[in-house]
Fold this sequence. Notes:
It is a single chain. The chain has one domain (2-121). It has helices at residues 2-29, 36-66, 71-96, 104-121, and strands at residues 32-33, 100-101. Helix content is 78%, strand content 3%. Strands 1-2 form a two-stranded antiparallel ribbon. By secondary structure, it is mainly α. It has 4 helices and 2 strands; from the N terminus they run αβααβα.
Amino acid sequence: xxxxxxCCLSVIFVYFAHFLxxxxxxxxxxxxxxxxxxxxxxxxxxxxxxxxxxxxxxxxIQSIQLLRFNRRITFFAAEMIxxxxxxxxxxxxxxxxxDVLLTTSAEIMIAVSFxxxxxxxxxxxxxxxxxx
Length: 132
C-alpha cells in the first residue's frame, strides 16, 4: 500500500509540474485558453501523447543511428526528431481542444522550452557512442 501511495503522489507531482510549466509558457507566449480546466485537459493530453509517441521517437532515432552517418549529423538528427515529437504532441493536444488556441510559433517555443528543460535536468552521459 505504501508503494502505491508513493507512486500516486509521484504521478500527481509530475502532472502538476507539467501543468505549472505549461501555464507559465502559455502566459509568456500569449496563448489563449478559456478556463483552467481546459489547461488541465491540455496538460493531460500532452502527457498522454508524449508517452504514446516516445516509442516511435526512439525507433526513429535508432534507425538514424543504423544509417551510419557522421556522428554530428546523427546527433543533430536525433535532437531534431526529439523536438519534432514534442511539437507533434503539443500540436495534437492543441487540435483536440477547442478551448485552447496556440499559434504555431507558440507551439514550437513550448516544444523547444521543454526540450531545453529536459536537457538541463537530465544531461546525457558522454561515452564513446551516442547515448540514445
